[in-house]
Design brief:
By secondary structure, the chain is mostly beta strands. It contains two helices and 15 strands. Strands 1-2-3-4 form a four-stranded antiparallel sheet. Strands 11-8-14-15 form a four-stranded mixed sheet, with no helix packed on it. A four-stranded antiparallel sheet has the order 10-9-12-13, with no helix packed on it. About 6% of the residues have low confidence. The structure holds calcium ion. The site of calcium ion has 6 residues, from loops.
């Protein structure tokens, strides 16, 4: 069992799912700073396109006794970049949430959020406020466990891991999204695939969708803004 799962069980007991689509360190920071509770669905993603991941919590009472009374607020927290998080007001009614997933459904380069609500239709939160540069990386075959690290010109590193089944009855966008903030390029992009191969690309321009094939480099498509 991974250290994070063990720590989670010690804190909240077994039987609760935690979902994430970012680095473990970002989730640990969110758990510590936000006070995540049992049963919370957690997404940690670069929604704001800054280099710091945002945290989204979706929840709903278990067991369900009343579809309206058991709904709970969707909570969004902005990463302050110093280990702390600040809650952002979300103009959304409480939801009896279960699965949640982040994906760039309209291919404009920012992540949007889909939430599965018991007794209701799918809820889609379209991201219309994201500012800053971004980079989308697709790996041919979408191999779970692949890890992509972006080194920014100022030396900061952003790491994404490709996961399958990343939330309850849900799965994230298989493309990896990097919010770059003011950075207009990535100094180095390091791709580690599950088979052990490592590929490095240098000076990758921002605001593109890259598709990478093992050992064959990649093709780039401008856009995502
Ligand atoms: Ca989008």
């Amino acid at each position: 069992m991974r250290a994070l799962e063990r720590a989670w069980e010690e804190r909240f007991g077994s039987g609760h799912a935690v979902s994430m689509n970012s680095a473990t360190s970002a989730l640990n920071a969110a758990v510590a700073a936000v006070g995540v509770g049992p049963g919370d669905e957690v997404i940690v993603s670069p929604y704001t396109m800054s280099a710091s991941a945002t945290c989204v919590l979706v929840n709903g009472a278990i067991p369900v006794t009343d579809l309206d009374e058991d709904a709970e607020p969707v909570r969004v927290f902005r990463n302050l970049g110093d280990g702390g998080f600040e809650e952002i007001a979300v103009p959304l009614r409480p939801l009896l949430g279960r699965g949640s997933a982040a994906a760039d459904y309209d291919n404009d380069g920012d992540l949007d959020v889909a939430i599965l609500e018991l007794g209701g239709p799918l809820v889609l939160l379209e991201n219309r406020g994201a500012r800053g540069n971004r980079l989308t990386v697709a790996l041919e075959g979408s191999p779970p466990g692949a890890e992509v690290t972006a080194v920014l010109p100022d030396g900061r590193t952003l790491r994404r891991t490709l996961q399958a089944g990343s939330s309850y009855l849900s799965s994230e966008d298989p493309r990896l999204h990097f919010g770059l903030g003011a950075a207009e390029s990535v100094a180095e992009l390091v791709v580690r695939r599950p088979g052990g191969s490592v590929e490095r690309l240098r000076d990758v321009a921002a605001n593109r969708r890259l598709t990478l094939e093992p050992g064959r480099g990649g093709r780039s498509q401008a856009g995502g803004r």
